[in-house]
What we know:
This is Alpha/beta hydrolase. By secondary structure, this protein is of the alpha/beta class.
Amino acid sequence: MNDRKPGVAIPERIIPFPASISVEARAALERLVGDDGSPLNAAFVMPEPDDHEGWLRVKAAVDRQYAEAVKGLAGQLRSTVETIRIEAATIHVATPAATFNDDRAYIDFHGGALVFGGGEACRAGARMQADQHGVKCYGVDYRTPPEHPYPAALDDALSAYQYVLERHRPEDIVIGGRSAGGNLAVAVLLRARDAGLPFPAGLVLLSPQLDLTESGDSFETNRLVDLVLPGSLMQSNLLYTAGADLSQPGVSPLFGDLTGFPPTFLQSGTRDLFLSNTVRMHRALRRKGVTAELHVFEAMPHGGFGGAAPEDIELQDEINRFVRLR
Length: 326
């Protein structure tokens, strides 16, 4: 009896960094592998979903790393920021020093596997978006597990969206999310429609984590090839959902009804573990007649090349163009 799993058998090989990318991008990839070519990030092991003490320790350590990483930005950021509470949600409201349009607003959902990335990193991220787009940015510091599993983050996202709608016209709002934040950016629109709320003018999804079932092709083809996110996030997915169905639209919004969605900007890279999330979302939107741009960058891993490569700058220019057209 042949019980071999259907698929393609690939012999062991080294996948080189291509000459088709910038010198800066190649250097960024080279910094993420050991002397033997193994991804440095592959050594990170997530606790089991029911090991809440373990997750609290990992979460504290990762949040310290995030906070340390954003310290260097303090002198570069020009926007001011105020932190407010709306119901259970924490929102960092960043106001740019030079405003492109006082009426416009950008709602930002941070990344971090739906577990990490809050606090100082989220606060700095809101200021970065305000500086970048020249509009007021609302950075949603949503609650995370293990203390606050699903649907706490989505509840916070909806509270934030309602708050912004009370202060800005929907046609003046753009919602954006990177990685896990892309999940919430889409899921909150599904929830908003159910609540009878209008859609914003645009949606920006950067390597979005839209399918927590991890059923896409790139979860296999880009495993270990993506040096930033070399493997499955299923442990954190299960922690986040706390027993909820992984395929329900509130958890995996790729499977939701995308009818009437606003114009959407989608980005990924050929080495991104979430490439399938992005291209499948693009096709799902186009099947509903939604205007959607798909930008896939050569050899780019999850989250880009660190921000300084020409490809990163090109991506930022494309996002700026999209946001200002809304």
